[in-house]
């Protein structure tokens, strides 16, 4: 389920009437950006979306649901992360991984070490670095 899914028109508009996803803390490297929306990359049902900044539309993260590609992927959040996101149930957590597109699917990688976690109920989000984990920063999709 995408809490703020919109169709990508490539219009570059900065504000939409779709619900915002608000990061409770800055994404590393993007300290001034907190407001995003989840957008489809095309009009078809796609496995891959983009997390688009509403403050700077040129900032976009290509994301996917990791369970599609990594069946054994599990994210364990600590109490502080759950509290900051207002998460009371794991069922409310939408987990996304940031992709680094390659020339094709075989060379595209997913950052499994630092997923984006979104509370589907209140749209609070954070990029969480999984401490004590062996998940790679660049896991091949293929």
**What's the number of extended β-strand segments?**
9
* Multimerization state: single chain
> From the helix content, strand content and strand pairing, which structural class follows?
mainly beta
- Poorly predicted tracts of residues: 1-16
Task: Describe the overall structure.
Interacts with translational regulator CsrA and flagellin(s). InterPro entries: Flagellar_assembly_factor_FliW, Flagellar_assmbl_FliW_dom_sf. Its main location: cytoplasm. The protein is mainly β. Helix content is 5%, strand content 33%. The chain has one helix at residues 79-85, and strands at 5-6, 21-23, 35-40, 48-53, 60-64, 93-100, 109-119, 124-127, 139-140. Strands 2-3-4-5-6-7-8 form a 7-stranded mixed barrel. The two termini are 24 Å apart. Mean pLDDT is 86; it is low at 1-16.
List keywords for this structure.
cytoplasm; disordered N terminus; 7-stranded mixed β-barrel; mainly beta; cilium; 142 residues
In short:
Pfam families: FliW. With 142 residues, this protein is mainly beta. It is built from one helix and nine strands; from the N terminus they run βββββαββββ.
List the helices and strands and how they pair.
Layout: E1 5-6, E2 21-23, E3 35-40, E4 48-53, E5 60-64, H1 79-85, E6 93-100, E7 109-119, E8 124-127, E9 139-140
Parallel strand pairs: 1-3, 2-8
Antiparallel strand pairs: 2-3, 3-4, 4-5, 5-6, 6-7, 7-8, 7-9
